[in-house]
Structures are given as C-alpha cells and as structure tokens.
Amino acid sequence: MSHATAADGTRIWYDTLGEGEPLLLVHGQSLDHTMWNGVAEELARHHRVVRMDLRGTGGSDAPVDSAYTTDLLARDALAVLDHLGVARAHVYGFSMGGKVAQTLAATAPERVGALVLGSTAPGGGHEIERPVEASLALRRANTEEGRGLVAHLFYTPAWADAHPDQVATIVPHNPLRAQRRHYEASLRHDGWDLLPAIAAPTLVVHGEDDELTPVGNAALVAERVPGARLSVLPGVRHGYLHEVEPKATREVLDFLAEHPLPR
Q1: Average pLDDT rounded to a whole number, residues 14-27
Q2: What does the alpha-carbon distance between residue 127 and residue 130 come to, in Å, rounded to a whole number?
C-alpha cells in the first residue's frame, strides 16, 4: 500500500496485486477499492493489478473545498501510474469509475492500453436516466433501509441476501460531503464528444437488468467508441462483476489478452 500525490497535493491511496501487464481498476461513486474484492484477486492471476481509492474515499485524502470532476479524478489516476513508473496500463472502470476511465482514455490516450467500461454511461443529455425509485434508494444509501434497497439494485435479491460481505463493499464508505462531490462529478460528466476520441480497444460490459445505470446506456457508449465490443450479461443487475464472476472476469481477461500492451 502506498500513496501518490496529485497536482493539488491530495494523497491518493493505491496498492498492487500480482504480476504481468498493469491493469488499473477504478471503482464506482462513493465506494472504494474494496468493491473489487474477489474480482481483483482473479485478475491478478494474469496482471499486475493496481487498485486505487478515488479522492474522497478509502485511504485517500478527502478535500471538499472545491468541485470534483471526472477530469480531476482521471488526473488522480495518472498520478498513481506516474508514482508507479507505469507508462501505459489497461484500465477497467466501473459505474462512475467508467466515466473516469472514458475521460482518461480520451485525454491521455498514450497511457491507456485496452479499456473496459462496466455498468457505465455517456453522461450529459444523452444518458438514459435511472428510474426515480432507484435515485431515491441511492439518496437513502446511508440508512439501513437504503442499504437494503441499494443491495437489491446491485444484485438479484437472492444473491445479495446470500452474500452480505460483498454487499458491505457496495455501500458508501466516505464522508457525506465527499459523497456529494462524487455525485456531482458523475452527474456533470458529459462524455458524448469524448467517446469518439477513444483509440483504445474497448469492451463495454453491462448487466441486462441494471436499473442503477439502465442497460440502454451500454449500447450508446459502444456505438460512440470506435470499434467497441458490447457484452450484455443476462439475468444480472448493476453488480454483474460479482454475481457472475468468473464468467465476467474471464470475458475481461480474454479481451485484455487479445490486446497486449505494445512493447
């Protein structure tokens, strides 16, 4: 475990697992690196996995005196790669982390190998909005009732109820003011004009029954990124990466193996 330092002095926590071509994991809104539990270890069988905590979460600093943007968070990710001396890495972004990954791939193409975008959306006026009920559940995520609602939006109810340890990793883990900064960063993201600029080989993965980020967003993203591959996984929701792991992990690993980093 270590910390990189962003341009504004914010310390960004990260750790590494495994060996091989580097793979940066970018977590979702107001979560932290623990949301990758179970998945990161499997990815690390083939890659040097870099898990980071976005500013405002986990072991990273949580400055809240100014706005967070997906561009700022992407530059934090670059600070981590710089601290590790990694010139180029594959990137796997989940949910809001997928918006950060879009920004990173479009604005620093020389730093990104292959790109995986999970359960994410283009943002802006083109994003297909979640149902009102899902938004209300997210607003109550810090309450006992809200945590249960969010768990069943992430996963099918039977799976969520059988995996309480995993559910514990997908509820907010950061101060309320930092949660607000994350929410604003995701809400204000507009990747519509960025997506066509992505040159990285891209895999878009989504659960067919996702209500937190409706599945129609996956098609929008895949259509905008040149040559992107779309994979919609049946019968699962926002947290497909856990509920149908190892299938989802194997699909990601196979895609990365098709697109090795240039030597």
Answers
A1: 98
A2: 9
Q: How far apart are CA 24 and CA 92, in angstroms?
A: 6
0.90 surpassed by pTM: yes
Q: pLDDT (tens digit, 9 = 90+) per residue, 209-246?
A: 999 999 999 999 999 999 999 999 999 999 999 999 99
Write the secondary structure of 196-231 as one string of H (helix), E (strand) and C (coil).
Answer: HHCCCCEEEEEECCCCCCCCHHHHHHHHHCCCCEEE
Is residue 239 classed as helix, strand or coil in its secondary structure? coil
Closest CA to 91 of 107, 75, 115: 115
Handedness of CA 224, 228, 234, 237 (dihedral sign): negative
What percentage of the chain carries pLDDT values higher than 70? 100
Spatial separation of the C-alpha atoms in residues 4 and 81, rounded to whole Å:
9
DSSP H or E run through 232: strand 229-233
| Alpha helices (H) along 96-212 | 96-107, 132-139, 144-154, 157-162, 164-167, 176-188
| Tokens (6 digits) for 37 | 């539990």
Q: Return the structure tokens found at 141.
A: 């995520």
Q: Is 21 helix (H, G, I), strand (E, B) or coil?
A: strand
Give the confidence band of 136 by pLDDT, cuts at 50, 70, 90: confident
* Alpha-carbon gap, residue 157 to 159, rounded angstroms: 5
